[in-house]
Amino acid sequence: MTHRNCILIGAPMDSGKRRRGCLMGPDAYRTAGLAEALIDLGHTVQDRGNVAPAPFVETPHAKLHALVETIGWTEALADANDTALDDGLPIVMGGDHALALGSVLGSMRHAKRMGRPLFVLWLDAHSDFHTPQSTDSGNLHGTPLGYVTGREGFDGFPALPYDLPQENIAIIGLRSVDAAERAALQETKIQRVDMREIDETGIARPLTEFLEKVTAANGLLHVSLDVDFLDPAVAPAVGTTVPGGATVREGHLVMEMLYDSGLMTALDLVELNPFLDERGRTAQLMVDLAASALGRSVFDRPTRAF
Fold first, then answer.
1. For residue range 198-247, what is the model confidence (pLDDT) as tens digits?
2. Which residues carry out catalysis?
3. What is the DSSP string of 214-262?
4. What pLDDT does 2 receive?
5. Domain 5-299 superfamily per CATH
6. Structural domain boundaries in the chain
7. Any residues with CB less than 8 A from the CB of 20 and at least 6 apart, and which?
8. Contact 249/269 with Cβ under 8 angstroms?
9. SS3 state of residue 266
10. Is the confidence at residue 41, as pLDDT, over 80?
């Protein structure tokens, strides 16, 4: 097993959508034993505490929810993730998916300094490819991939070091994409894997295809895992539930393949809303998935009764 220095970064961020509760996510991961699980696998763990957004004064926007606060979080998380990448493997504990506006930006800055391409694996029921103009909800947790690929309309957000190439992104687990996103995505080179494709061919085939691209390019890999990638029957603690998601076994397979590849350089754990959980079962499952991504095998996976 390759031993890593895992750097935990709390992102108690609730500004990306109107439903509250994700700000409790970082402490739920700590309570569920994320650090202990990684230490048990032989990794070192540094918990750098919770990030706070850059100073901001929120001003109401006619359409977008908490725009200025989200920009503040983007600035702070980009700095935190970029700094952590110099020291090990950052694991950003969210927090809603708008945190990836900052965490992926931090990975992009690091990749540019390293002179290596960045790839992003987006495990999510949603494509999150909106712009501030195209979103109907006004919730910015649906915009990170639009931002990092250089789509227009992100006025006030930090400048990108470059536009993340579309072919360097894979979205796996799709099952809720609105008309505006669908039309935009169909014009891109983003690898899009919906649940029908997973049902028909399995989840390993498209993931292997993507990981082979990362390897061939000597790329860095940022993984962003949304709770709603999983079926809500096994992971209820999310405000954006969509039936028909990945099974527990499919989730572990993805994580085990990531570990086997040795490619993952940063990990987001997002959209956990402990207020909606059942005796901590979703938080525990996300911890178990993170452990699989860092080397836990079927032979040392604990069995729990909830």
1. 999 999 999 999 999 999 999 999 999 999 999 999 999 999 899 999 99
2. 97, 124, 126, 128, 141, 226, 228, 271
3. HHHTT-EEEEEEEGGGB-TTT----TT--SS-B-HHHHHHHHHHHHHHT
4. 81
5. Ureohydrolase domain (3.40.800.10)
6. 5-299
7. 14, 275
8. no
9. strand
10. yes
